[in-house]
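Teaching soon. Invent one.


***
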Amino acid sequence: MKKLREIMGNMQTIAAQMREEKDEAKLRELNAKFENLKLEAELEKTVIFEREHTAKAPAKSANQQLREFLASAPLGKQFNLPMSRESISYNPQSSGGQVTYPGTGDYVQGITVVDLISTDRKDGDFMAQVGVPMTLGVRGNKIQWAFAGGVEAAFANELAGTTERTISLDKQTPILQRLTLRVKISNEALDNTEYDLAAYIITCVRDAIRQKINWAGASTTKATESFYGGFAQNAESGTYGASGYVPGKQVGTYTTFSKETAAEMISKLASRNLSLDTAAFVMGSEEFWRLKVTPIDQGSGIMLIGADNRMLGIPVVENNSINRATQKGAIAGHNIGLGSFKYMPVMQHGDIRLSRDNSSATASATDETIVTVNAYFSMTVLKDGADAFVVYGKTNG
């Protein structure tokens, strides 16, 4: 609109000059300028009209766009899902940032990464339960770490009392790991306009991503060489604080888990000024339910894991992944972990991309359309917080 006003103002100036001009040659020159400005004004009006018309046009639903894409897109074509680039901490009250884009283009309107990466604790999400910080839609090389620590409110001259370890976030860069999954959809479902296609895809993708990341974050086995949680690190070596010390998880053993064992694990974090604010015990179902009925002291009637699922004030999360070497592998071992999970940020990088296949031999044989989803994630144990994770294994005795 500003540009149109400038053009109209120039036209008025030239019109005034034309009324005063007596020389025919200069008059023709002014008239040519006036006509050019008139054309510019008409073009600008068209641009403004189209912009306003597009903005007011009803957006296609996610279902409609998905159906059009799956039915007509060239084989292998990809489209992107709009990303929320806000930092989201897993929290039952956190709905995340919803981002939509006008028009159609290469975006599916109304679906965001928040739909695909669950932030609802009712899902039984391990990462949600232990409070892992996550940043979504990270782009470029400059990383904004999803780490909340080392800041304390204090009155003047009281900052000397801050004891939490200072974390240097410029010492490492997250390593991206591609996560791929496939969703199969019957062509009959695609033809059924009443079928909520978007909800089906969102549910499948969300559950698959959640399960894979949850296992990687809780297991004592590395998912890949560059994607693993604090419990899967190598154990620390050398003497803490001494020359030659190599950071890593702290380890120990137990024969019969007791309040003294729990206190020993907690002290391993507290003695090194590691935050207990986001600390949680993690153990498999067998250990969890045994400790739920194990008295903290004989005859006390108070159990090691209380009715609030806390042990010595620290939350306890039941998760069998700590004893699984693969996501769906057999439960083996009786590991009990304690971690301060603020030192293990997870990031989702870039867009989540979908491509489709409805004409390959595999898809044609079963009359299905196969949607392949590619997304990049990183899970990073911060170097200055590597020893914020403790794992105790059970020994026979």
